[in-house]
Amino acid sequence: FSAIEITKDYLDRARKFDGSIKAFISLNEDAALRDAEAIDARMLKGEEVGLLAGIPIAIKDNICTRGMKTTCASKMLEDFVPPYDATVVKKLKEAGAIIIGKTNMDEFAMGSSTENSAFTATKNPWDTTKVPGGSSGGSAAAVAAGFAPLAFGSDTGGSIRQPASFCGLVGLKPTYGLVSRYGLIAFGSSLDQIGPFTRTVEDCALSLQAIQGQDSMDTTSYKGKIEGQYVSELQEDIKGLRIGIPKEFFQAGLNPEIAKAMKDSMEVLEKMGAILEEFSLPIMDSALSAYYIISSAEASSNLARYDGVRYGYRSNSFEGINELIVNSRTEAFGKEVKRRIMMGTYVLSSGYYDAYYKKAMLLRSKIKDSFANAFESYDIILSPTSPILPFNIGEKLEDPLQMYLADIYTVSINIAGVPAISIPCGFSRSKLPIGLQFIGNHFSEKQLLKAAYSLE
Ligand code: GLN
Asked: Which residues are in the Amidase domain (predicted)?
């Protein structure tokens, strides 16, 4: 197949069926076809093309694409067209990938259901009465519905892994610093990472190879030596792999059907020669509290740039600069974004800093230590990705605390900065996908992918 045939095929499918899924905020039809044509021409000439030559991809709408609207699913950036590409986008283009569209998300990546988008809610392709998860729900739905073989999202507290789990896909949150954040519109800068959604572990390995690497445009980018090859390492067996099972991740609140799917997968791993052992990792409650304090604090600072002055939405009615700022924000930010900004401003304010933000930072170092300790005894940690199955659209919208609980197994990973992958591991009786999470030590992506591959 030529790149143009493949691209046309996916675009046709997206045009035909996205009306009922709403994975995309914008399609990039003309440019995608032009790019595909260019790839075909280069291949015809025998030129060398990249790792993802001619592969259509979808990109979450908080990752900057030059000349293409990047809205963060917010009225604030509804007409924002970035003058530059995010480093990840630049790398993907160099690898020959064809960007076919930008995907829906929770506004500024705040949420777990993709219902917080200012434009529309995305539906789960497995059952359109259910949410696809969030905040990268559009990217997950795009791959699950067959609109693109690969999609990219961002994960601050679970926003790749949880939607991957809800949509029956592989989703990877890389080690903090492995993938450049330059051009990713910031939510919680010390937690954010970009990663892929794919149908297979092999595609995930390939995608990571394409986007990872040191970048001078991101000061938190890792400067040490990294693994360059993941795909060729996937074949190895997992005999002797030490897998820790944190018992706190399997207690009250875990859906019994998900618990059963975990047990079945553990048996398979044991049969293949992995050594499984239960241990205690009592970080759940503190991780959730620390996460919502740290991520909201960072968000309140990051989102202060939207003032209606330099770019983004500007209110039509104001007198003086203060009213300009207040009215622009009041009119253009959604409810959840305002809630996070207020929470963040509160925990950072001088009177409450010690009681909240400082405590959260202490918890953060404890959580890091707990993971470091665990990785002295285990190569990998196994848990469910989410305690619940994909829920009904609208079900948790009025109850933010219930929504926050959907991330109970994922947020601690971002706090510690370690990598984790969610892989499909069966279905509920109601035919909804279930996801299993493997957590690894810093820069152990190779091992994570190997373990994930063994369950495929
Ligand atoms: N659902 C979490 C939140 O609302 C995580 C979001 C994310 O990873 N971007 O903050």
From this structure: 5-449
| Nearest-angstrom CA–CA distance, 37 and 14 | 19
| CA atoms of 82 and 67, how far apart (whole Å) | 6
Percentage helix, strand, coil, to 5, in the chain?
40, 15, 40
Question: Ligand 1: which atom is nearest the Cα of residue 406?
Answer: 1
- Confirm or reject: Cβ of 40 under 6 Å from ligand 1: no
CA-to-CA distance for 185 and 76, rounded, in angstroms?
Answer: 13
Q: Which helix (H) or strand (E) holds 380?
A: strand 380-384
Q: Determine if ligand 1 sits within 6 Å of the CB of residue 407.
A: yes
Contact partners, residue 305, CB within 8 Å, separation at least 6: none
Residues β-bridged to residue 172? 421
pLDDT, position 311: 87
Nearest Cα to Cα of residue 228 among 456, 6, 10, 446: 446
Query: Nearest CA to 145 among 18, 253, 232?
Result: 18
Tell which phi-psi region holds residue 133, choosing left (phi > 0), alpha (psi between -120 and 50) or beta: left
- Name every residue whose Cβ is closer than 8 Å to that of residue 342 and which is 6 or more positions away in sequence: 300
Give backbone dihedrals phi and psi of 60, rounded to 5 degrees, phi first.
-60, 145
Q: Which two tokens stand for residue 454?
A: 């063994």
Torsion of CA 438, 443, 449, 451, to 10 degrees: -50
Q: Is the CB of 155 under 6 A from ligand 1?
A: yes
Q: What is the mean pLDDT of each run of 10 residues along the chain (456 residues)?
A: 97 98 97 98 95 98 98 98 98 98 98 98 98 98 98 98 98 98 98 98 98 98 94 88 97 94 98 97 93 98 95 95 97 98 96 96 98 98 98 94 92 98 98 98 97 95
Cα-flanking dihedrals φ and ψ of residue 276, to 5°?
-100, 140
pTM to 2 decimal places: 0.98
Give the ipTM of the model, two decimals please. 0.98
* Residue closest by Cα to atom 10 of ligand 1: 110
Catalytic, 22? Answer no
What is the domain class of 3-233 according to CATH? Answer: alpha beta
* Tokens of residue 330, six digits: 């009041």
- Among protein residues, the one with the nearest Cα to ligand 1's atom 5 is 157
For residue 228, what pLDDT is reported? 86
- Measured distance CA(177)–CA(201) in Å, rounded: 21
235 CB-near residues (< 8 Å, 6+ apart): none
- Based on its alpha-carbon atoms, the radius of gyration of the chain, rounded to whole angstroms, reads 21
Give the pLDDT of residue 237. Answer: 86
Hey, which bits of 77-155 come out as E strands? 98-103, 150-155
